Write a sequence for this structure.
């Protein structure tokens, strides 16, 4: 009987437990399962990575079948499960760098990255030509092509390293296993040593990372070309990108109807409950939900250098305002999480807009102003966060009805929403921005005061902000730095 490099049984393949398309049940105490929350939020990571909705979930389906096929124990299967769902935790952190290099929407640049055979000079050349300022002038295209060509392998390594280091760091902040963090850190290493960020090879690459690399690439090719073509790709890259024994295990699944049906399902997330190791299923208690909100706030803030700690700052200020106003503890919990997740929708906005140094044109502004709507849509699909979706999506509304994305008027804005609006505007004004000079504290408060006087901001929330700042000596993060 064949064994892989870690002595794990690779064959024969025993099918995984049958997965039925249904929403995972609540835990015995009524709490939401962590897998429900994480799998829903993984769809936000798919957007940043330029992949179709459900990419991470389908990668998880492939990877968990692989892990089962080679006989991983339940502890490592659990680590693998969350590594697969959260493999792209760091994907937002290199978006700005990619946008700068290519002069193109970072999501478009990333979308076919995994389909390119990087050992081929011709394939690399075509990829750069295809993605270097495709909508720009000839001069722009030449400039960005030269920028990518000159920096070459060094830039590629840096881009991957930024992403992988950030992803592993956030996984640790979520209190996930070290195996999960290490797998995320090494998911772009290749069997022959040609991968990144460290260029390690063969058995030196952790087994979970090898599974991640194979599973995510198979999913991309499956989405584009179908299941059999994805397996053929894996065989063609066996020994270069992928561990040959893992590829052999994958090929043994060619006629596995359970895998074929699961990866092709229109509701793949509903299948995950049966794939998570039963004895390792985690519950998302209040502390866990706070960590998840904080972690995805980090993902959002990493997308642009101009928002390095924006979500954290908005959350802290909003909680300060709410506390000054005597909000009950459950409301403070909601406003803290809404502050951390209010800009989740910005993951669906290109860095060509977020990082633009000048004034946005009308079309760009229209796209940017949809990000609260995107936030609402994302959070409504997340168990345990759907109750804060409307609050989080209201952070650009105004009492006079001139805000966005809905333009609702003051009577429909809750006290919590009014507090969040003030907190968001305060933090944004106090932060570095590419399109204006930095403002001191006095200038920030003057602008806010004018918005109160003209009917845009809630005077009660603004007064609470001033009281909070006086009592706490809160310092905006860009000033503290």
């Amino acid at each position: 009987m064949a064994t892989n490099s870690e002595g794990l049984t690779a064959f024969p393949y025993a099918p995984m437990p049958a997965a039925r398309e249904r929403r995972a049940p609540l835990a015995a105490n009524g709490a939401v399962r962590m897998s429900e929350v994480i799998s829903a939020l993984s769809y936000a990571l798919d957007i940043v990575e330029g992949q179709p909705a459900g990419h991470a979930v389908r990668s998880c389906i492939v990877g968990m079948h692989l892990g089962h096929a080679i006989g991983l124990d339940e502890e490592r299967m659990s680590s693998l499960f969350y590594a697969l769902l959260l493999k792209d935790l760091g994907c937002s952190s290199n978006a700005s760098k990619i946008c700068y290099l290519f002069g193109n929407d970072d999501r478009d640049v990333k979308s076919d990255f995994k389909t390119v055979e990087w050992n081929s000079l011709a394939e690399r050349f075509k990829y750069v030509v295809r993605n270097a300022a495709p909508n720009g002038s000839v001069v722009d295209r030449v400039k960005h092509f030269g920028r990518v060509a000159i920096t070459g392998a060094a830039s590629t390594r840096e881009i991957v390293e930024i992403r992988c280091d950030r992803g592993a760091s956030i996984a640790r902040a979520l209190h996930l296993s070290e195996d999960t963090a290490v797998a995320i850190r090494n998911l772009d290493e290749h069997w022959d040593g040609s991968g990144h960020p460290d260029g390690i090879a063969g058995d030196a690459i952790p087994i979970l990372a090898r599974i991640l690399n194979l599973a995510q690439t198979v999913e991309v090719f499956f989405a584009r070309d179908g299941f059999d073509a994805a397996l053929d790709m894996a065989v063609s890259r066996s020994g270069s990108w992928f561990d040959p024994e893992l590829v052999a295990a994958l090929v043994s699944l060619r006629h596995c109807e359970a895998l074929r049906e699961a990866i092709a399902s229109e509701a793949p997330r509903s299948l995950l409950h049966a794939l998570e190791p039963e004895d390792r299923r985690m519950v998302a208690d209040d502390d866990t939900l706070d960590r998840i909100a904080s972690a995805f706030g980090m993902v959002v803030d990493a997308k642009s250098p101009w928002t390095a700690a924006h979500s954290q700052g908005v959350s802290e200020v909003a909680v300060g305002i709410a506390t000054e106003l005597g909000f009950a503890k459950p409301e403070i919990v909601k406003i803290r999480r809404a502050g951390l997740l209010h800009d989740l929708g910005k993951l669906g906005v290109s860095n060509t807009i977020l990082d633009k140094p000048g004034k946005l044109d009308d079309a760009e502004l229209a796209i940017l102003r949809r990000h609260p709507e995107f936030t609402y849509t994302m959070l409504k699909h997340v168990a345990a966060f759907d109750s804060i979706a409307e609050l989080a999506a209201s952070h650009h509304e105004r009492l006079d009805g001139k805000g966005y994305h809905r333009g609702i008027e003051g009577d429909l804005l809750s006290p919590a929403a009014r507090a969040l609006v003030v907190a968001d505007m305060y933090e944004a004004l106090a932060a570095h921005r590419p399109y204006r000079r930095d403002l001191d504290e006095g200038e920030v408060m003057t602008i806010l005061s004018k918005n109160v006087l003209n009917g845009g901001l809630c005077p009660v929330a603004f007064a609470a902000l001033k009281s909070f700042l006086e009592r706490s000596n809160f310092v905006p993060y860009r000033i503290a730095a």
